[in-house]
Design brief:
Elements: H1 2-10, H2 81-85, H3 91-99, H4 110-136, H5 146-160, H6 164-168, H7 172-193, H8 265-270, H9 287-291
């Protein structure tokens, strides 16, 4: 735990001038150090994303005794696309190794398992906020709010280290609201610095299936926008705010997302793209994009 805890502490240092994303390594899922919590704690329903129904707290039938997925290499063809999209932002290993001290839900009491499953989604939400706050501190234009961002990041990190009982009673929604005020101000500052304007405010817009090939969305606010199955081939999304945007089946072929911020790996995994899609350094090109070619 020492190495992991050290990485997490790094999030509270002054990183305002750094351009790389290496300090977010502790905010990525590490299945080797997790007890398969996403495969047990979370529910899913039979749909285009999941081949079967599963209740919360019930292990997925594909979960092996060593907490590994028995069909990991075949998730998409076997009907479990939703699993390939999901990421816990490092909450799985935090809950497994720190919150519950490495005690497996399989070997503990039923109450121990229940508390672990209840705490996991809470810490996952907090870790997602840590992802956004850490990225906000890498944006030079957001310097006027860097001090507030650091204080809020430290507070959020401290919340993730509370006891299971304290985490279970935490009002995550209220904390998200507090963080969102800062992230919204960060977005305004960053987009203003790159020419973003009110004319490009698509916050919460219903753009499902929209034909936006080659659209100029540089510096746009697409916060919470519904872009499901939208065609953004060749679109200019440089320096756009993509926090909470629904990119399921969005076509990003040859789109330019250089400098786009608050984009997460789960969002990108849910989209479609190719070798010509240009991405910010905070995310990686999904393997299934190449597989489509």
């Amino acid at each position: 735990m020492g190495k992991y805890a050290g990485r997490m502490r790094d999030h509270t240092t002054d990183q305002s001038d750094q351009s790389d994303q290496s300090d977010r390594s502790g905010l990525r899922g590490d299945c080797e150090r997790c007890f398969g919590l996403c495969c047990v704690a979370l529910p899913f329903a039979a749909s285009a994303d999941f081949a079967i129904d599963k209740q919360a707290g019930t292990p997925c039938p594909n979960l092996r005794g060593d907490h590994r997925c028995g069909i990991h290499a075949e998730l998409r063809p076997r009907g479990f696309t939703g699993c390939t999209v999901y990421d816990c932002f490092g909450a799985g290993q935090k809950v497994s190794q720190l919150t519950f001290g490495g005690q497996d839900w399989r070997t503990g009491s039923r109450e121990h398992a229940r508390r672990m499953f209840d705490v996991f989604p809470v810490v996952r939400q907090l870790h997602e906020l840590l992802w956004y706050l850490t990225e906000a501190l890498t944006l030079p234009a957001a310097r006027p709010v860097h001090a507030d961002l650091r204080r809020t990041l430290e507070k959020t990190e401290a919340l993730t280290r509370r006891t299971p009982e304290e985490l279970g009673a935490l009002d995550v929604g209220a904390h998200r609201q507090e963080v969102n005020v800062l992230l919204l101000r960060t977005s305004e500052l960053a987009r203003a610095a790159t020419g973003g304007s009110k004319k490009k405010n698509r916050r919460g817009a219903d753009l499902m299936g929209a034909r936006l090939q080659g659209a100029d969305l540089r510096g746009a606010s697409l916060r919470g926008a519904y872009l499901i199955a939208a065609d953004l081939t060749g679109a200019d999304l440089r320096d756009a705010d993509l926090i909470g945007a629904d990119l399921r089946d969005t076509d990003l072929t040859d789109a330019d997302l250089t400098g786009a911020f608050f984009l997460t790996q789960p969002q990108l995994n849910a989209a479609r793209g190719g070798p010509g899609t240009r991405l910010p350094g905070s995310v990686t090109r999904p393997a299934h994009w190449t597989a489509r070619l």
